[in-house]
Amino acid sequence: MNKFLPLLFPVLLISQEKLETQIIDFNKTGNGYPHAITETNNQKYILANLQDSIPLIFKFSETDQKLNYVYDVNGYNLFRSKKLYPLKEKIIFQNETYPYSLNSFDGNKITYLEYNFSSKSLHNFIQNDNGYFFLNKDSYYKNKLFFTDGNKMNELSFNEYYYTDLQLHFASTQELIYSAKTNDTVILNTYNIDTKKSKQIAKQFVRGNFKKSVEYFNNKLLFALKENDDNYVYQQTNSNSISKLNLLVNKNDSLLDTIPVKVKGDFNGFKFNNNLFFSGNIQNDYTKLYKLDANNKLDIFAELHYNNSYYSVDDRSKYFLKDNKIFFTAYKNLEDKIGSLWVTEGEIGTTKLIKGDFNLPLDNFFIVNNHLYYQDKTALFKLNLSNLNLVKLTNAFSEVTYSYLLNNTIYFSATEAIHGNELYTLNTLNDEVNFFKEFNYKENTAVRQLLQSKDGIYFISDNALHLYNDTGFEKVSESSPLLITSFYKNPENYKEVAEFKDKLLFISLDNQLISFNKSNKTITNLGYINYEGNEYNFNKSFLQVNDKLYFIGLNSSNSRVLKMTDGTLDGTFTIEESNSHNYSPNHLTYNKNTDRVYFTGTNKLGKTTIYSTKGVKNDFIEEYNSNESDVKIVGTYKDYIVVNIYESLVGYNLYLFKDKQLTYKLPLDFRNHYISSFYNDDKKMYFLYNNRLSESDGTDIGTKEIFQSNFERLFNLHKCGNSFYFEDENRRQIFRSTNYKTQLLKKLDVDHKVISNVCHNNIMFYTNTDNRDLTTYIQKKDYLIASTDQSYLDLEINHILKNDNNYTFTTITEIAAFNNKILLKYNASFVNDQSLFLGDLTNFSLDTNDINNGILKSTKIQVYPNPSKNFINIKVDNNKTIQKTTLYNTIGLKILTQQFPGNVIDISQLSKGIYFIQIETDEIIETKKIIKN
């Protein structure tokens, strides 16, 4: 879905003339991870991770799929939670990022219940009719009990400070049941909520760590107590005494015998129609299913017997009630990871096995319209309860993480090749499975690499390959696991791409070489590469020669070797199969005069050797053994190979290499620095090294210095038009050198650095990264920098985008151009939204000879005095009329708007601080920073 940028706040700002720009959105990204759905009386909520793994809470609408982020407009807090607790018309959640707090949300307003808890410390939430009881893991709060009704917090205390390992089990309006440990003895206690006093119920009762081991049924507590290695079931009566739960059996015609019931471990059961069901045994008999009714009568209800084994209910068991039937899972033993599914009808009906041969554990199930829908780890199934016909409803998922039934629709989270971990729906009326909602904030996509091509601009989105060209946007390949990549951090490290007539080769972010066939639109994985190139593109590990690509790959021993490919599996091979030593190739360079590829490698003595090949198996020639360990092939010039060598006595020197000999040493003063960037044509070579730019035609007379800076070392040499462009080592300064005149084109502040560039129609474009002060949220300028041989311009992108709930900061991270269209990939730093700006450069010009049609049709705006205490004056060149001024604070909130305001703005009533004034004339919109004293 395409959205026009003017719909967002604010528009793309250009300091000269408006540039026609669109924002391109690609839905269904697949980088989110919904965890759970919960609902209150009038509102539903989803807890989901976004692609940067921040768990956020959204209000949820079933009908229009709209997600509203739970936010605090005053505190600007981001809430990180692991679980939601529904309470009447509210949800309770813990914020696990600073400031750590417990909060309630009623759908409109957040209430901060407590600020002082440490991160991830709250646990063991137990609900009664009025709210939640919970504990705190922090040692400072040892043995303290907390309660909240969603409006305020209450702090209670158990007063038994010798207890450890507290665990809550049950809460009524009068009592709280909890367990604790003292001197390695597990104790079960009751806590009176009104009197705030505890009373011991039992010692050494069996309980697992944080497992439900106590049942509250018919005003009685039931639990397991260990005696002589047997776990007996006990119950607490109204008189607060405890006794074993006994089964009455006929001893003879006139006598009954009472036999205590035992369980294998903890006591676990489920309730149905005023009955409690659990698994147990007497006198070491086989485990059976027992029923305890409301009159405290205990009976053997059923034998769970299948395939010569007896099954029992334990803490892993799940159950579902439907139409006077109870469906439940049971397990053969603790080693049984799969389980079986059973059904019992009514209070005296039969119990029978539904299914006992699952392939994977049965995680969840629902009964809808006489069908049982259940989830295992990879799929959803439907079981007809009349004829037990089983149908698998989903096939595309590698993992199903949870499911939730809501109004005859099953919502489930799953991992699938197209969308990743996202939310899907299963309509039980027609069994249709549909993608419901992506969890990439603001519905944007994660656009991956921008690959410049003669056909257009390729990029990866939705884990598929797309192409932008003269006809627009097109998905050119369907989804493929080969395109599922790791987190995208350094775009400059993945710019290497080879393009043949019928193929495009690029590097996936998990370090595989991918071949895309343009004709049949198929994708082939050519294997792992070993990429050690740096962001300045000097130590090249990839080299295209016509329709062949040389690259550094791995052999069967995971050693670095030189490989060649024509883009097919059959045409991909290692150049030198028999070399016994690990030569670790690097610095690939092609010399068209000799038709050979040259590269460096390490010989058996640890010294650097120059090798060459024609791209045929076992054509592997040792050209020159330098006896030095640091040798770099810089490039080629005419018949020569240009070699940078560090010589132990004199430091770095630059040589021309030919016919297996170093034939000439160039007179360049390296001062112990190496060549950092290189450019050549048929006439001259150009070098960046140390803090200098030099040129050479291969002779002493023709070798000279063009520029020497007083800054740091220089890197990243590019030619665009008749100018050379390069940067300092920290990528904060951009230089332009034209006709031997060099100037500092742009100096970025310490919060920015150059990250991407492209030359289009003899115009050089740069983008820069952006940071902001996380304390003050001060806005930083984000630039698209444009330059020709004579002109230079900042295209300032005001990078605060407004949505319904929040302000998001963006950074332009990549740039590509094709036929007067420019693509800018932006990244919203808070949640990694990644989408595309599409700019039309048809009327864009920096040519001073075409000033009437170009963007240099100048209107300049000045604001003064700045700083100011009372008034700000606005001066606009060319006598342009100011249409509107808008004042914003540092987080983007609108403070003041004036239509046709004149040239003076009164700021006397504003508080001291930094503001931004947006000034709009009939031609431009420009934003200036002002300071109020």
Structural account:
The two termini are 45 Å apart. The chain is an all-beta fold and 933 residues long. The chain has no helices and 86 strands. Among the domains are: 709-841, Lipocalin (Beta Barrel); 861-932, Macroglobulin (MG2) domain (Immunoglobulin-like). It is 0% helix and 52% strand. The strands form 22 sheets. A 6-stranded antiparallel sheet has the order 1-2-79-78-77-76, with no helix packed on it. Strands 19, 20, 21, 22 and 25 form a 5-stranded antiparallel sheet that branches.
| CATH topology type of one domain | Lipocalin
How many E-type strands? Answer: 86
**Uncertain segments:** 1-31, 440-445, 484-494, 533-538, 772-779, 798-809, 829-833, 847-859
| N-end to C-end Cα span | 45 Å
Q: Tell me the major beta sheet.
A: 6 strands, antiparallel
Helix fraction, binned, reads: under 10%
CATH architecture of one domain: Beta Barrel
Strand order of the largest sheet: 1-2-79-78-77-76
Based on secondary structure, the structural category is mainly beta
Rg, Å, rounded: 36 Å
Number of helices: 0
Shape: elongated
Q: What do the pLDDT scores average to?
A: 76
- Strand proportion, as a percent range, falls in over 45%
CATH class of one domain: Mainly Beta
